[in-house]
Amino acid sequence: MNSMPPPEMQMQYSAGALKDSGKLTVWVTIPEKWHVNANEVTDEFLKPSSIEVKAEGIEFGDVVWPKPIKEYNEALELEILTFRGEFKIEIPVKAVADKYDSLGTEATFHYQACDNSICLAPASKTISLSENAAGAKSSNVNSSAKKNDSENEVAANKRGNENLEASATEAAENSAASAGIIALLFFAFLGGIILNLMPCVLPVLSLKLFSLIKQAGESRGRLLALGGATTAGILASFWVLAAVVAAVKAGGGSAGWGMQFQSAGFIAFMVVILTAFAMSFFGVFEVWLPWGATTKMDEAGHKAGFAGAFFTGALLVLLSTPCSAPFLGTAMGFAFTASTPVLFLFFTAAGLGLALPYILVSAFPKILKVFPKPGAWMVRLQKVMGVLLLATVAWLLWLVNEQAGMAGVGMFAVVVTASIGGSFIVGKFAPPGAAFKRELITLGGSIVVIAAVWFAVIAPQYDAAATEHFNARMQEQMTADGWYRYSPALIEEFAKANRTVFIDATADWCLTCKTNEAAILNRDEFRHAMDSLNVALVKADWTRETPEVNALLRSMGKSGVPAYAIYPAGDASKQIVLPELLTTAAIVENIVGRRK
After folding, report:
1. pLDDT at site 258
2. Which residue of 59, 340, 515, 584 has the lowest C-beta tally within 10 Å?
3. What span, in angstroms and rounded, lies between the C-alpha atoms of 449 and 333?
4. 123 sits in which H/E element
């Protein structure tokens, strides 16, 4: 980061009695290549330098400043006054009380520094006379140096804390991502456990567990091995499902986690399957497999030995299809957006949840006594699961309201109605036991009709409603000069709208900022270029420090303003940092180059 170290400061009182024309002199040294504004400024946006002096029992007069350096800024057509290098400030002593403490004198220098490219936030530096000061400049050098060392140490600690804060922010983001994956795996595991309590699984579960114990006889080792084989059969079936999903996902590409909820099509897909599977839990229809496939797996599962145990696990997954389809179908919608390793971890966690009873009984056979018995409570639990799925649909409709307002919610109500209607059609014309081909035709026909309604009727109107809602919301964030006020949420909004963003981090007291605004950013050439490229102009105001703009500057590797960045269309995580000295051509080149 380009940052100026604090200026060096020394001070001393004039020789002789303070009451007799005494004065305090403060020497200030500005680091090379930097300057601070003089005590007088030529425009109200500039922050003047000032000094405060206090000492017990001593009253000071008006400050005497050195003659400033005059510099001319062509872009602003403005003469500015600055201090560079070493200069001295004199403060006359106006009155001294009978009891005073000159050694406790403190001087605070307020300044605002710039170099040729950036301006730093207004800052201050305080020094005090040492207790052993003798009154001469030379005798004060060592004590001042000690003070400066302390100041530098504080500054170094501050910079270290900023680095730690930035590292902590990055670590927190990584931790949040890891926590999201852990939560996903936990709920997948929990879903697998709940599958064991469904009406299509629990009645079979006890029989299969007793069969394992009977085959094992008195051998604990064999029981553990048979339980492991059954678990392997369950996991193998889930891995086959994961491989199918991964293959389909690889053929259709993938998106970052969370970005899928920016797609109206994805939300519509989730609304359809969540509503349909809720209807399945309510008994409107069932998803079932051809009887022949189930019979063959059942015959293999009845064979003694490890192969039979393995096929028992695979059969359990097939038998659970009417109940697991709502769980796994919902999960697959989210799994399509996850990475392949996370996808396999997800299905592994769900498989381990379904296999948990076999794992527990293999390790602790007596635990079989506490397993719940089948009953009417299973049907009630299934209906509770249906209510939870509908609650998820309500949450998705809330997302739609955020994206497209109530007009969008009304359109999605049609999608929900179509999904419910399709569920009743499947339940009526393809009940369990009917020809499997009939189920496929009915189910496929319902999907085609719903898809046609979405793509032909709703999607075009939804996009228009979402655009209108977005523009109305963004208008509230716009300043009088046509720039949007910066916030992290705003950048996310523009990413969802697939718009490129140009950020100007600026401050009212920043000379370089004003220069770039006059020479580039406020000119018609720049505005026309940005309009033609559909670029959103965002201003991050650092006139008064805010945590949001501080975090933005840290992410850009900047310690001051101006700072400029481009966020490519559709991706709020990528940031192209531009140099402080701008040209319209360079900005356009960076935008167009990223779109190729």
Report:
1. 41
2. 59
3. 20
4. strand 123-128
Q: Indicate the pTM of the whole model.
A: 0.45
Question: What pLDDT is stored for residue 347 in this prediction?
Answer: 85
Residue 285 is given by DSSP the state -
How many other CB atoms are found less than 10 A from the CB of residue 421?
14
Q: Cα-flanking dihedrals φ and ψ of residue 578, to 5°?
A: -100, 160
Taking the chain (596 residues) in runs of 10, the rounded mean pLDDT of each run is: 83 76 90 93 88 92 94 80 94 89 90 87 87 40 37 43 45 52 77 72 62 63 82 88 73 44 68 79 67 44 60 67 51 61 85 87 73 66 77 80 77 82 77 58 68 69 72 62 86 88 90 87 91 92 84 88 91 87 87 71
Phi-psi region of 57 (alpha: psi -120 to 50; beta: other; left: phi over 0): left
Distance CA 273, CA 289 (A): 18
Smallest CA-to-CA distance from 526 within 582, 480, 580 is with 582
Q: Which residues contact 421 (CB under 8 A, 6 or more apart)?
A: none
- Compute and round to an integer the Cα radius of gyration of the chain: 36
Rounded Cα gap, residues 160 and 152, in angstroms: 12
Block residue for tokens 């009891």: 99
| φ and ψ at residue 479, rounded to 5 degrees | -85, 175
Q: Are 386 and 282 in contact (CB under 8 A)?
A: yes
Tokens of 420: 């419910």
Q: Which fold has domain 8-166?
A: Immunoglobulin-like (2.60.40)
10 Å Cβ neighbour count for 271?
21
Q: Rounded to the nearest 5°, which phi and psi values hold at 98?
A: -60, -40
What are the residue ranges spanned by the domains of the chain? 8-166, 196-467, 484-595
Q: How far apart are CA 80 and CA 140, in angstroms?
A: 33
Q: Provide the pLDDT for residue 259.
A: 41
Identity of the amino acid at 217: G
Q: Which residues contact 101 (CB under 8 A, 6 or more apart)?
A: 55, 56, 57
Please check whether residue 420 is in contact with residue 275, taking contact to mean a CB–CB distance below 8 angstroms: yes
Alpha carbon distance 286, 293 (integer Å): 17
> What is 484-595's CATH number?
3.40.30.10
Q: Print the SS3 string covering 249-274.
A: HHHHCCCCCCHHHHCHHHHHHHHHHH
Spatial separation of the C-alpha atoms in residues 73 and 563, rounded to whole Å: 20
Q: Which residue has the tokens 């000069």?
A: 481
Residues in CB range of 291: below 8 A, 6 or more apart? none
Q: Closest Cα to residue 22, out of 139, 142, 135, 104?
A: 135
Torsion angle in degrees (nearest 10) through CA of 344, 348, 351, 357: 180
Helix (H) or strand (E) holding 80: strand 78-83
Rounded CA separation 349/187 (Å): 9
Cα-to-chain-centroid distance, residue 233: 39
**3-class SS shares of the chain: helix, strand, coil, % to 5:** 60, 15, 25
Instruction: Give pLDDT, residue 156.
Output: 41
What is the sign of the dihedral through the CA atoms of 433, 435, 438 and 439? positive
Tell me how crowded residue 411 is: count the other CB atoms within 10 A of its CB: 21
Residue whose tokens read 């990475």: 339
